[in-house]
Amino acid sequence: MQPSTRSVPRSRSVRLRFLIACCGALLALLQAGLATAQRHYEMIIPIAAGGSLDLMARSLSEAFSQQVGAPVTPMNKVGAGTLLATRYVAQDAVRDGRLILFTGLPYTTLQFKDGGPAFDNSRFKPVMYVGWQPTVLYIRSSIPANDVASFIAWAKANPDGVTFASSGIGSSPHIAAEQFAALTGIKIVNVPMAGSSAFVPALAGGHVDAVFDAPATRTMVQEGRLKALMVGNAEPLPDWKELPTAHDAGLDGFRSGTWYGVLVPANTPDQTVQTLNGQFNKALASPIVKTRAKEFGIELTGGTAAEFDTFLQREHDRIGALIKTRGIVIP
Question: Residues spanned by CATH 3.40.190.10 within the chain?
Fold first, then answer.
């Protein structure tokens, strides 16, 4: 006798398949949730380690980590004039607000790259305006000028132009020099170098005539190796009040420096952006951040994401007008 074969009733088979499908879907959801929970915050920094932007980003990362109670990894992604890092964040597809770009003025100047914008800024959402770092006009000590007026007169007497060091075309020192030339009518020659670590010694050695650099370079002035003529700001520096402002020098409307801010990919939900904004504003009040900002002469700002968006549009218009007027080509 052959053993009988018992078939599973159809209704039970349907229930079994449904149960298996539900378990599979639940497992996928659990895995997705676990992946999100395990993804650390990353603060992407578009320049090499060691500069004021990098150190400010790292201080803010530390304070932000304390606010959210989770690790935050500062990560330097260097290349193509901050473009590599910018594109890296823009292409992030995860909508969790955990991949964050800390950037500055190059974000604006790259919008005017020769041949078209270097990236689509609609792929970002502003989170918070961190602050503004004004720069100071320094000249080599051998130039016979001790104020802006006498420096302008000296510059106009040099038909070959005054050499201004910068960290590249479209960098903050270059944009400041071009704006200064536009307001004063002097002729300038841009001399690109590998950042402040290169152009400050070059200026002290008499290889270039001038540069717009951070207030921290003041130590070279105190040593008598450079002269400082003004800060590119309407307000005096809190720790260097004797230094004339642009207004004092008769250059109303002149502003030199760089902004710092935090952005996330455009697909980040608005509620997440608002949450991040609140957390970053609290982090901005941290002693860690305040100490670092004071060291570099950064005026901390904070505020809403909408206010930062408005600021970015104003900067876009300001820089765009200068680039057009001066015929600057951003390679």
Answer: 136-231
pLDDT in tens, 136-177: 999 999 999 999 999 999 999 998 999 999 988 999 999 999
- Listed residue (312, 302, 301, 304) closest to 273, CA to CA: 304
Domain 40-132+257-326, CATH: 3.40.190.150
Read off the tokens for 324.
Answer: 């057009």
Of 218, 221, 198, residue with least CA distance to 208: 198
Mean pLDDT value across residues 113-130: 92
Query: Strand pairing partners for 140?
Result: 226
Mean pLDDT for 260-269 is: 96
CA distance 178 to 261: 23
CA separation for the pair 27, 192 (Å, rounded): 56
* Tokens standing for residue 26: 């639940």
Q: What is the pTM of this model?
A: 0.83
Is residue 28 exposed (0-12), middle (13-18) or buried (19+ Cβ within 10 Å)? Answer: exposed
CB burial of 279-308 (b: ≥16 within 10 Å; e: otherwise) equals bbbebbebeebeebbebbbbbbbbebbeeb
- Give start-end residues of each CATH 3.40.190.150 domain in the chain: 40-132+257-326
The phi, psi pair for 126, rounded to 5°, reads: -65, 145
Give the tens place of pLDDT for each residue, 182-212.
Answer: 999 999 999 998 877 888 899 999 999 999 9
Q: Measured between alpha carbons, how far is residue 93 from residues 38, 269, 273 in Å? A: 16, 12, 15
The sign of the torsion formed by the CA atoms of 98, 99, 102, 105 equals: negative
Q: Which CATH class is domain 136-231?
A: alpha beta
Q: What count of other Cβ atoms lies within 10 Å of the Cβ of residue 22? A: 10
Average pLDDT, the chain: 89
* DSSP annotation of 4: P
Alpha carbons within 13 angstroms on the beta-carbon side of residue 198 total 11
